Amino acid sequence: MLTIESINTYYGNIRALKNISIDIAQGEIVALIGANGAGKTTTLKSISGITPPRTGRIRFMGKEIQNAAPEKIVAMGLCHVPEGRHIFPQLSVMENLEMGAFLRRDKAEIKKDLDYIMSLFPILAQRRKQAGGTLSGGEQQMLAISRALMGRPKLLLLDEPSLGLAPLIIRQIFEIIEQINRSGTTIFLIEQNANLALKSSHRGYVMENGEITLTDTADKLLSNEDVKKAYLGI
Amino acid sequence: MFSLQEIKKSGIAAIWFMFLTFPIMVIRVNPLERTIQWRWENMLYVGIGVFAFSFLWREMLRRKEMGLKKKMQEDGSEKPGFLQKAAENPRLILPALGLVMGIALLFPHLVNPYQISIMTLALIYVVLGLGLNIVVGQAGLLNLGYVAFFAVGAYTYALLNKHFGLGFWACLPIGAGMAALFGILLALPILRLRGDYLAIVTLGFGEITRIVLENWGKFSGGPIGIRGIPRPDFFGMSFSLSEAIMYIYYLMIAAVILTIFVINRLQNSRLGRAWVALREDEIACQAMGIDKAKVKLSAFALGATWAGMAGVIFAGYNTYINPKSFTFMESVIILSIVVLGGMGSILGVVLGGLIMILLPEYLREVGHYRMLIFGAAMIIMMVFRPQGLIQSKRKAYEFQEDKGAA
Ligand SMILES: Nc1ncnc2c1ncn2[C@@H]1O[C@H](COP(=O)(O)OP(=O)(O)OP(=O)(O)O)[C@@H](O)[C@H]1O
Ligand SMILES: [Mg+2]
């Protein structure tokens, strides 16, 4: 579904990504783990066109997107939940969700998706009129994910969904991520919380200093000695 | 409330103000007789006044805070004030609109031409405020050089008329179009800027425009400006002076109605929603698939269009223009209209425009103190009602809520 072929992304003269290659197949949950500053966020931004790679190719559903504008990429069904959630703070929960469907014009279908999301996150239904900025961190993360779902993504990019959340909420969010995946959305997620991320995923990539150092099925990564030492704290 | 601490606070405020106002309130220099008069009694009045007022001030702040807390507890959101409620009550809207329209139509028959002219000027500023409201209130892009677009409209009419003899009605769309073009020209290089930087660049743009007009004498007539600009005509018919004043007034009423209509439509359109998204969070805006550049350009261009139109009418209204009408101060006044009225709220901006222009005009009787009163009013306003006269309300959610969901 998504094929990244040795991309290099720069911030000015700093080379943040070095020949990154990643493959994601339809229906998968793939995790990308790595230390702070490894380049995980940059990888997602390169995919979604916010910091396009200088060299290399990215193909999504057979089309090359490494030079496409971010809004074109979203329109193709590739939605990005940015690091730090980025809720619209003064808009209500409902209005936030409505923004998620900005590119769509099929009102009846949007309504259906809203109902689906309200069943997925009952807490959001309760808070529908509350301003996004006044939600708790966990609620904001749920809103950010649902808002992206309102765009009916084929591939969902999640940047650290567990950032700053309590263990109980994190587990809840990962359960929902799996549920979203079961209903047909492919998911590529970045995590610091390697243990949980790998437990929910099918496959994983490990990133260090802008390079992919390891890739395997999630189970194998979980039992890999190096990964255990570096990321699982065992 | 009269605790020692409070008294101390008020005492300090009183001394501070006595010190601040010392040069103007106490010392009076008489340049003819070369004497200095010391009016110590004024200092006493200032001290007592400030001392008493500071108690009142604190009490009001306290009340405001308590009120806020109570409202927050009730329903998690701020409760609308009286004006707000009146503005949102659907049963009041039609009669109120009718009443306002009636007054607006009858107004020029009840007062003298001077007052009609003042009102016309206020209406011009209402249109300017509504236009800037798109850029600042809706899209959240601070523009301190907005008056430049006003100047572009005015000079477009003046110059096209002088050199090519084009009439008012031909120039109206041309002026608006020229201003939009300038809006895009300004927006292109600053697409990446936000906040402070944007404010500085737009401020510079406004000043450059004024300086060019002032110094490029051959083109714009320099500081003297351009005279003899014809007043708007009515299908080739022209009027006597008093008729013309009334005609321009009605023209402005029509312009305000048109502006409100169009801007209201824009606000509730996809573009309007994209502006709001841009104001709220640029990164999220991009993640929603909104083209940031296009949205910014459209906000600047559409905002400038109204300034251009207002500029053409202003040139016809004043019959002569010079760069003095387009200084930074003007940008500040227009921005104040938007802020005072309530960012993003159409009704608020209309009220703000009328107050900002009419109040100083009618305070003229109070002479020197009018700007002082005006400044104090602005400060009080910002402390006690920072959201403006009327808080902006976005259109409620479009889809029916299903009651069972919660
Ligand atoms: N806008 C920027 N300008 C310059 N350098 C940047 C920029 N954004 C990121 N970098 C650098 O690129 C490298 C990778 O950053 P990135 O945000 O991708 O890390 P990350 O893996 O997401 O880290 P974290 O887990 O802390 O979020 C870092 O060294 C960072 O300093
Ligand atoms: Mg990151």
UniProtKB/TrEMBL annotation, chain A:
<dbReference type="InterPro" id="IPR027417">
    <property type="entry name" value="P-loop_NTPase"/>
</dbReference>
<keyword id="KW-0067">ATP-binding</keyword>
<dbReference type="InterPro" id="IPR052156">
    <property type="entry name" value="BCAA_Transport_ATP-bd_LivF"/>
</dbReference>
<keyword id="KW-0813">Transport</keyword>
<dbReference type="InterPro" id="IPR017871">
    <property type="entry name" value="ABC_transporter-like_CS"/>
</dbReference>
<dbReference type="GO" id="GO:0016887">
    <property type="term" value="F:ATP hydrolysis activity"/>
</dbReference>
<dbReference type="InterPro" id="IPR003439">
    <property type="entry name" value="ABC_transporter-like_ATP-bd"/>
</dbReference>
<dbReference type="GO" id="GO:0015658">
    <property type="term" value="F:branched-chain amino acid transmembrane transporter activity"/>
</dbReference>
<dbReference type="InterPro" id="IPR003593">
    <property type="entry name" value="AAA+_ATPase"/>
</dbReference>
<protein>
    <submittedName>
        <fullName>Amino acid/amide ABC transporter ATP-binding protein 2 (HAAT family)</fullName>
    </submittedName>
</protein>
<keyword id="KW-0547">Nucleotide-binding</keyword>
<dbReference type="GO" id="GO:0015807">
    <property type="term" value="P:L-amino acid transport"/>
</dbReference>
<dbReference type="GO" id="GO:0005524">
    <property type="term" value="F:ATP binding"/>
</dbReference>
<feature type="domain" description="ABC transporter">
    <location>
        <begin position="2"/>
        <end position="234"/>
    </location>
</feature>
<dbReference type="InterPro" id="IPR030660">
    <property type="entry name" value="ABC_branched_ATPase_LivF/BraG"/>
</dbReference>
<keyword id="KW-0029">Amino-acid transport</keyword>
<comment type="similarity">
    <text>Belongs to the ABC transporter superfamily.</text>
</comment>
<dbReference type="Pfam" id="PF00005">
    <property type="entry name" value="ABC_tran"/>
</dbReference>
TrEMBL record, chain B:
<feature type="transmembrane region" description="Helical">
    <location>
        <begin position="195"/>
        <end position="213"/>
    </location>
</feature>
<dbReference type="InterPro" id="IPR043428">
    <property type="entry name" value="LivM-like"/>
</dbReference>
<dbReference type="GO" id="GO:0015658">
    <property type="term" value="F:branched-chain amino acid transmembrane transporter activity"/>
</dbReference>
<feature type="transmembrane region" description="Helical">
    <location>
        <begin position="12"/>
        <end position="31"/>
    </location>
</feature>
<protein>
    <submittedName>
        <fullName>Branched-chain amino acid transport system permease protein</fullName>
    </submittedName>
</protein>
<feature type="transmembrane region" description="Helical">
    <location>
        <begin position="43"/>
        <end position="61"/>
    </location>
</feature>
<feature type="transmembrane region" description="Helical">
    <location>
        <begin position="141"/>
        <end position="160"/>
    </location>
</feature>
<dbReference type="GO" id="GO:0005886">
    <property type="term" value="C:plasma membrane"/>
</dbReference>
<feature type="transmembrane region" description="Helical">
    <location>
        <begin position="116"/>
        <end position="136"/>
    </location>
</feature>
<feature type="transmembrane region" description="Helical">
    <location>
        <begin position="297"/>
        <end position="320"/>
    </location>
</feature>
<keyword id="KW-1003">Cell membrane</keyword>
<dbReference type="Pfam" id="PF02653">
    <property type="entry name" value="BPD_transp_2"/>
</dbReference>
<feature type="transmembrane region" description="Helical">
    <location>
        <begin position="166"/>
        <end position="188"/>
    </location>
</feature>
<keyword id="KW-1133">Transmembrane helix</keyword>
<dbReference type="InterPro" id="IPR001851">
    <property type="entry name" value="ABC_transp_permease"/>
</dbReference>
<feature type="transmembrane region" description="Helical">
    <location>
        <begin position="92"/>
        <end position="110"/>
    </location>
</feature>
<feature type="transmembrane region" description="Helical">
    <location>
        <begin position="332"/>
        <end position="359"/>
    </location>
</feature>
<feature type="transmembrane region" description="Helical">
    <location>
        <begin position="371"/>
        <end position="390"/>
    </location>
</feature>
<feature type="transmembrane region" description="Helical">
    <location>
        <begin position="244"/>
        <end position="263"/>
    </location>
</feature>
<keyword id="KW-0812">Transmembrane</keyword>
<keyword id="KW-0472">Membrane</keyword>
